[in-house]
């Protein structure tokens, strides 16, 4: 699903990633952990094709994405990758349900199918009473969960998440990781998740430990 070889990234000649190799299989849930400044977000941005490595190759679903540019890169990203970030940018003039549905409508899926999937995701995320609320009528945690549902509406093959539970209380955070497992089991989706949450990091198949721009350890998790 994802193979990255010898990734390095320099910011104004300062090395931030110093040779990272990663392989993630289809349907795997991998967490990336490590102290602040280790390079986790930088790595996730490279794997998600949002930024380009200084050296190295990334292949996603058999496509060498480090060769794609412009429109073909944007198309590949929109079709295959879902992003969950902490700063969620919901559209303020639309309701929660509409925010979740919009990427599905844009993708051209039937309106009925999109609404059903949006309702399933919102319900699973504990938002069944919030369909018609606009973002400013929702708490920070609720807005984050709407953004998660929106990221998942088109069932992207691979989901890149940067601190997806950062705004959530511990119960909602645990439920979000459980949703990732449900989706993996149902749709074989693949998840790469950067997290500081030591309780949740093991709620994965595998933890990659980053330190000072490198992956220094790999911990296999017991299936929760
Ligand atoms: P983590 O996610 O593990 O906290 P980051 O990938 O955010 O680590 O950052 C790794 C290092 O790269 C840090 O020292 C950070 O200051 C630096 N860095 C990140 N982004 C940039 C940037 N755009 N320009 C310069 N330095 C950056
Ligand atoms: P969470 O734990 O999800 O962050 P909060 O404790 O912040 O939730 O909010 C509890 C309830 O208050 C939520 O159901 C939410 O809908 C409501 N609420 C929070 N902030 C606002 C707001 N600015 N306007 C209206 N309702 C709000």
Automatic annotation (TrEMBL):
Matching Gene3D superfamilies: P-loop containing nucleotide triphosphate hydrolases
Organism: Chitinophaga parva
This protein's UniProt keywords: ATP-binding, Cell membrane, Lipoprotein, Membrane, Nucleotide-binding, Translocase, Transport
Gene Ontology, cellular component aspect: plasma membrane
CDD domains hit by this protein: ABC_MJ0796_LolCDE_FtsE (cd03255)
SMART domains the record matches: AAA
Domain ABC transporter: 2-222
Biological processes annotated in GO: lipoprotein localization to outer membrane; protein localization to outer membrane
One of the record's GO molecular function terms: ATP binding
Protein's recorded name: Lipoprotein-releasing system ATP-binding protein LolD
PANTHER family: ABC TRANSPORTER ABCH.1, IMPORT ATP-BINDING PROTEIN
One Pfam family in the UniProt entry: ABC_tran
